[in-house]
Amino acid sequence: MHTDPTGPSRPTGPTVVQRELELRLVLSPECGVPVPARLGYHSDDPYAVHITFHIDSGYPVHWTFARDLLVEGVFRPSGHGDVRVWPSKAEGRSVVLIALSSPEGDALLEAPVPQVSAWLERTLRTVPPGTEGARLGIDDGLAELLAR
Asked: Taking residues 48-70, what's their average pLDDT?
């Protein structure tokens, strides 16, 4: 039996956690349009989540914001400014509403809580809360800078 003296091997690249799902662009309380989207999380950018809308079109739209904002927004109103997230009900289903504001316009999107929560749980297992800074190597970089 051969044993590796350096210990267990570690992944060499970042871990990516993705999920495609259909969101609903809320046009009015009675009317919405389905929008294909992809949730993305990259362990080398541990504080952020990425949402890409219109993934099947030639002009996808990308938004990036804090993972903590989405985690909190599943349970209670969270955020201010360009991105706000809060839980709600739609036709008896649990949803999370995501309000996005930019100079190009505003959008209110509705996402199903079960799919968003399951994806968030995968991101939290990949990089547990409180360990994000270690992923960035900030302590190593700071130590190197101070050693000079």
From this structure: 91
User: Do 50 and 70 form a contact (C-beta atoms < 8 A)?
Assistant: no
Is the Cβ–Cβ distance between 132 and 46 less than 8 Å? yes
Which pTM value belongs to this model?
0.80
Q: Is 90 helix (H, G, I), strand (E, B) or coil?
A: strand
**Helix/strand/coil percentages in the chain, nearest 5:** 25, 45, 30
pLDDT tens sequence across 1-25:
434 344 444 446 789 999 999 999 9
Residue 27: left if φ>0, alpha if ψ -120 to 50, beta else—which one?
alpha
> The tokens of 33 are what?
């349009």
